[in-house]
């Protein structure tokens, strides 16, 4: 059974999204013209090197944005959750995607055609300003990531990556935070080899910081992770 298209005017993620400053008529127009797509775990939402034809807004699920390094290894540069937008930088620049977006689990996303999005940006100054702030934040986050990759040891970067996962995907009502993530994906966030991630995860388990069951990691002590991740700040 095909999922019904979410209505932008009543979307539960509207107030935390790029479209929070849209007026009712603009949201109605987005609903009328957008597509709603579902993706299986591991399915590509858009490919690095392709041309953008619109903007994606995650409705449900988890997404990684990654690129291949010169050595052929995957580097995860961003994690996205419900309410987050994808592909906006390439769309604004009218350039090819510099990274790929891939579903980390079963994911649903709205697709807004470029003509509709550009019309919205041209007519709504508040949305345009929010977009500029998003671009500035993304640039700052990228700079911070490169600095940490250059300066922080792997153990500290792994602690930081686990906190990033927690801060991105934990729901308010949850106690201990758990997430199913492959060791390859975790290594791609940290910027190291899978074997190195496995070794440091084992150390964290011995220290009572995390527990693991299969691919699922549960954070038992976020405070200890904060201390470890801040050693070189």
UniProtKB/TrEMBL annotation:
InterPro entries per the UniProt record, alphabetical: cNMP-bd_dom, cNMP-bd_dom_sf, Env_Response_Regulators, HTH_CRP, RmlC-like_jellyroll, WH-like_DNA-bd_sf, WH_DNA-bd_sf
CDD domains, per the entry: CAP_ED
Keyword Ribosomal protein annotated: no
Cyclic nucleotide-binding domain location: 18-138
HTH crp-type domain boundaries: 152-223
One GO CC term, this protein: cytosol
SMART domains: cNMP, HTH_CRP
Domain of life of the organism encoding this protein: Bacteria
Keyword Transcription regulation: yes
A GO molecular-function annotation: DNA-binding transcription factor activity
Alphabetical keyword list: DNA-binding, Kinase, Transcription, Transcription regulation, Transferase
Descriptive protein name: cAMP-binding domain of CRP or a regulatory subunit of cAMP-dependent protein kinases
Organism lineage: Bacteria, Pseudomonadati, Bacteroidota, Cytophagia, Cytophagales
């Amino acid at each position: 059974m095909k999922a019904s298209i979410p209505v932008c005017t009543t979307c539960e993620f509207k107030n935390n999204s790029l479209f929070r400053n849209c007026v009712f008529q603009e949201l109605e127009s987005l609903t009328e013209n957008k597509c709603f797509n579902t993706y299986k775990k591991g399915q590509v939402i858009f490919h690095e090197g392709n041309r953008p034809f619109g903007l994606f807004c995650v409705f449900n699920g988890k997404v990684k944005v990654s690129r291949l390094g010169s050595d052929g290894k995957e580097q995860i540069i961003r994690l996205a959750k419900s309410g987050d937008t994808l592909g906006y930088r390439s769309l604004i620049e009218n350039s090819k995607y510099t990274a790929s977006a891939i579903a980390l689990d079963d994911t649903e996303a709205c697709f807004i055609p470029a003509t509709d999005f550009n019309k919205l940006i041209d007519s709504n100054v508040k949305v345009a300003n929010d977009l500029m702030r998003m671009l500035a934040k993304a640039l700052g986050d990228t700079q911070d990531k490169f600095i940490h990759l250059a300066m922080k040891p792997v153990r500290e970067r792994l602690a930081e990556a686990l906190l990033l996962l927690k801060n991105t995907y934990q729901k308010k009502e949850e106690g201990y935070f758990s997430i199913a993530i492959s060791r390859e994906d975790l290594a791609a966030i940290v910027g190291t080899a899978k074997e190195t991630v496995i070794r440091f995860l084992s150390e964290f388990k011995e220290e009572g910081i995390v527990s693991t069951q299969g691919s699922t990691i549960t954070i038992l002590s976020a405070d200890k992770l904060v201390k470890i991740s801040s050693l070189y700040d």
